[in-house]
Amino acid sequence: MPKTGSVVGIDVTDRDGQGRRVDWEPGQSLMEALRDNDFPILASCGGNASCATCHVFLPERIVELLGERSEDELELLEETEFFDPKRSRLSCQVAHCDQLDELGVVIAPEEA
Ligand code: FES
């Protein structure tokens, strides 16, 4: 079980290319951390892996570390315009863990 208990810092690049470092609190999903820090994450399904408005790109090595996406997440991501098999995740499905300190997150472009 990954350890979670410390606030970790994440470097987020917004859709306009601007970067900002924010805190990710234990107990939050990555989507919640982004939304609470005023990034344009609609999260219209409330974190249930059914809207894809929380789509982000993570470094490949982190996507590998996080392991397999659920079937629902993968199906939804594959339907998005900007799906990158190596870097795409639904941020609502990424749980906080201390090993993700200094994670680089890029918010995916909005769907047309
Ligand atoms: S918030 Fe809807 S899929 Fe993540």
Would you spell out the secondary-structure blueprint of this structure?
Blueprint: E1 8-13, E2 19-24, H1 30-36, E3 55-57, H2 60-66, H3 71-78, E4 88-90, E5 103-107
Parallel strand pairs: 1-5
Antiparallel strand pairs: 1-2, 3-4, 3-5
The protein binds FE2/S2 (inorganic) cluster.
Quick tags:
112 residues; alpha+beta; five-stranded mixed beta sheet; 5 strands; 20% helix; globular; binds FE2/S2 (inorganic) cluster
Q: Can you give a write-up of this model?
A:
With 112 residues, this protein is α+β, with helices and mostly antiparallel strands. The chain has a five-stranded mixed sheet. The chain starts with 7 loop residues before the first strand and ends in a 5-residue tail after the last strand. Bound molecules: FE2/S2 (inorganic) cluster (FES).
